[in-house]
Write a structure and sequence with these properties.
The protein is an alpha/beta fold and 392 residues long. It folds into two domains: 14-24 and 270-391, Aspartate Aminotransferase, domain 1, CATH 3.90.1150.10; 26-265, Aspartate Aminotransferase, domain 2 (3-Layer(aba) Sandwich). The protein contains eleven helices and 14 strands. It has helices at residues 26-32, 49-69, 82-96, 112-123, 141-146, 170-179, 254-289, 318-326, 346-350, 355-359, 372-387, and strands at 3-5, 10-12, 14-15, 76-79, 103-107, 127-131, 152-156, 183-187, 206-210, 221-225, 295-298, 308-313, 329-330, 361-365. It has a seven-stranded mixed sheet with strand order 4-10-9-8-7-5-6, sandwiched between helices. α7 crosses α11. The structure holds pyridoxal-5'-phosphate. The site of pyridoxal-5'-phosphate has 14 residues, from α3.
Length: 392
């Protein structure tokens, strides 16, 4: 499958779908491997050295995750990823705060993991306000504040969007939530590791992380749950041996957790350098392609993740364009979780794109291992397709 082009030594296909998932960093893999073999202990085995070694790995990972988001290690609950963490956060808060109210505020451009959890909760009696967004994908803070009711228990607004990279005004949202004594949960799956995140500065009460978006393994993630001012209560959604302070039972995925910890550590150390290198490549790609009149950027250019550009190719048939690009470049039309669905993206539609333009939009997601040669190749390939749409 892998083709080598001798002239530029470029390895095809090029991977530009890093918002769907990322490859595991070799340094991360190295840390994980012993926990599959020699150090295979159960982190809950308290009486022998196998258990102690596993427990030590989990402890270190808890510290590494906490440090990246400016939390305390005791506030980290390990999960299988963000989807599970989101379910625990939202369903857990809904049950724990039922005596206070049943109203949740979220927004139309959230990931399906949040939107589908809201739908589930609506069947259980929740009332959910879905805030609209403007053409850049941003919510309106006045609208947020005016939608608060005496029964509002949770504000759930993502930090950065997975399709456009648009970053919401999280600090302002945190301040509003605090003023009204409402819990603030943010899905930071795409933001953590790419931009600085501080649960302290941004007054975030609950936040989710996924390892496979930050060069860690699939099947590992975490939920940050504030322990002070206020102490957040969540009703567990998986019951059993009382692991993770009773919030998430089940034998811990020690290799995955060790990998998540290492991924967080590498991101913390490399974030600034990596963000400037990757955003320069992203800008090169974006500037080259937006020279052509049908091409425009979806999302908020000034408040955006460094690694993403979502481009609308007006007038070009979206499906055919994607298929043509996908011959040698892995990109997607949006969320991987809904890519089997031919419907136009709910995110782009909420941003007021018509169905046609939403279907003609493609997400380019760069990453740690993206090279300049790959970006040059992408510019060349996509340019040819734009200039010769009849061949699509
Ligand atoms: N939230 C966002 C914004 C995402 O991009 C994703 C993954 O695509 C998820 C949640 C789900 O994460 P996971 O794959 O860890 O369940």
């Amino acid at each position: 499958m892998v083709t080598i082009l001798p002239r530029i030594m470029l390895k095809l296909p090029v991977y530009l779908d890093n918002n769907a998932t990322t490859p595991v960093d070799p340094e991360v893999l190295k840390i994980m491997l012993p926990y599959f073999s020699e150090q295979f202990g159960n982190a809950a085995s308290r009486t022998h050295s196998f258990g102690w070694a596993a427990e030590e790995a989990v402890k270190q990972a808890r510290e590494q995750v906490a440090e990246l988001i400016h939390a305390d290690p005791s506030e980290i609950v390990f999960t299988s990823g963000s989807t599970e963490a989101i379910n625990l956060a939202m369903k857990g808060a809904f049950e724990a705060y039922a005596s206070k109210g049943n109203h949740i505020i979220t927004c139309l451009t959230e990931h399906k993991a949040v939107l589908d959890t809201c739908k589930h909760l609506e069947k259980k009696g929740a009332e959910v306000t879905y805030l609209p967004v403007n053409e850049e994908g941003l919510i309106n803070l006045k609208e947020l504040e005016s939608s608060i009711r005496p029964t509002t228990i949770l504000i759930s607004i993502m930090m950065a969007n997975n399709e456009t990279g648009t970053i919401q005004p999280v600090r302002e949202i945190g301040t509003i939530a605090k003023q009204h004594q409402i819990l603030f949960f943010t899905d930071a799956t795409q933001a953590v590791g790419k931009i600085p995140v501080s649960v302290t500065d941004d007054q975030i009460d609950i936040l989710c992380i996924s390892a496979h978006k930050i060069y860690g393994p699939k099947g590992a993630g975490a939920l940050y749950v504030r322990r002070r001012n206020p102490r957040v209560r969540l009703v567990s959604q998986i019951d059993g041996g009382g692991h993770e302070k009773g919030m998430r039972s089940g034998t811990l995925n020690v290799p995955g957790i060790a990998g998540l910890g290492k991924s967080c550590e590498i991101c913390r150390q490399q974030m600034n350098r990596e963000a400037s290198r990757i955003s320069a490549l992203r800008d090169k790609l974006e500037n080259a392609l937006t020279q052509f009149s049908p091409v425009s950027v979806n999302g908020c250019i000034n408040h955006r993740l460094p690694n993403i550009t979502n481009l609308a190719f007006a007038g070009l048939p979206g499906n055919k364009l994607l298929t043509a690009i996908n011959r040698t470049i892995a990109v997607s039309s949006g969320s991987a979780c809904t890519s089997a669905n031919p419907e136009p993206s709910h995110v782009l539609k909420a941003m007021n794109l018509d169905d046609e333009l939403a279907k003609s939009s493609i997400r380019f997601g760069l990453g740690r291992f993206t090279t300049e040669e790959e970006i040059d190749y992408t510019i060349e390939t996509v340019t040819k397709l734009i200039q010769n749409p009849g061949a699509l």
